[in-house]
Amino acid sequence: RLRRSAVREKVKRLVVPGLQKAELDAWLMVERDYQRDPMMNSLGLTEPGDKAVLLLDGGSVQPRVFGFASSPDVIWQMTESGLFEQVLPLTADDVEGTLDRFRPRRIGIDYSGRVPLADGIATGTRQFAAWLVGRKYAGTFRSAEALAVTFRSTRTAEETELTRQAARCAVEIAERVLAVGLRQGRTSPEDLAWYAGDEIRAADVEAESLPRVFLIRPGDASPHAWPWLGVNSAATIEAGDLLLVDVALRYAGAAGTVQRMAYVPRRWQSEPPADIRRAFAVLVEARGGVAPLF
Q1: pLDDT number for residue 275
Q2: What three-state secondary structure class fits 56?
Q3: Model pTM?
Q4: What separation in angstroms does the CA of 85 have from each of 54, 70, 92?
Q5: Distance CA 259, CA 246 (A)
């Protein structure tokens, strides 16, 4: 619900000014099966399957938004989003018929007009888009690069709040993982990674990637030994180790990635050794120029 509300507000505020600035009358996004268009994800349309989204400058402050799909799951997701004025079958007749109501002269599609390697949608998808709009409108395609960049790089207040919530959730999970990991001699990074995965599932959020737990053993006997023991290793955590937890998750469409590090103290230590404290101090100083999210 939060994600759908944030997407609707963003579309309402950014699309018409963006179309006008890019000198476009419409913006057409087309996705075929698993040939993904990142803009669909930005609109919260994560269900795989053939689909198209048409956003038009209808002469008012808010855009006219139409969805087209053939899969029942995609149709359901589009309908539930509350974003669309109409959700229609994904056919050439329906897409061209909708365009005839507005007669756009310049239709933006997602490819770069400047960077050859960023050629956007696949050739087959572009041909499919041309078939959908018909011969009359296929010649009006223009690059929607500037519009897509503006939309994806602009963060609304609603999106920022969702990102804060995602980051808070990631922090809580990472710190719980470290609390378990400080019980040296009982667990391994592999155990902690599984525990982090369970915590993510229990929080009812999506894992952006597999949780990663790094074990660093700076007290190795050889001064030339590489102290990093790998990711999610089966090595037992011991006193004197450093643990780094990396948690990446997605909450209501917003991604949050957090890293937390802890030192596993030896029995007689009340604080980490001086060299580790110095390393942390350098890290904090280097990070000082970054504005905190919350």
Answers
A1: 86
A2: strand
A3: 0.70
A4: 10, 17, 18
A5: 4
For the segment 100-122, the average pLDDT, to the nearest whole number, is: 80
158 or 98, which is more confident: 98
Cα distance between residue 120 and residue 124, in whole Å: 12
Q: Terminus-to-terminus CA distance in the chain, angstroms?
A: 23
Residue 265 DSSP one-character state: -
Q: Across the strands, what pairs with 33?
A: none
| Contact assessment for residue 16 and residue 57, using Cβ atoms and an 8 Å cutoff | yes
Cβ–Cβ under 8 Å, residues 57 and 19: yes
Residue whose entry in the numeric block shows the structure tokens 């087959």: 124
- Type of residue found at 161: E
Torsion sign over Cα 157, 160, 166, 171: negative
Pull the structure tokens for residue 104.
């756009």
Cα–Cα distance for residue pair 97/218, rounded to 1 Å: 68
Q: Where are the alpha helices (DSSP H) in the chain?
A: 2-21, 38-42, 72-81, 92-102, 123-133, 135-138, 145-153, 157-181, 189-202, 274-287
- Angstrom distance (rounded) from CA 229 to CA 237: 11
Do 77 and 49 form a contact (C-beta atoms < 8 A)?
no
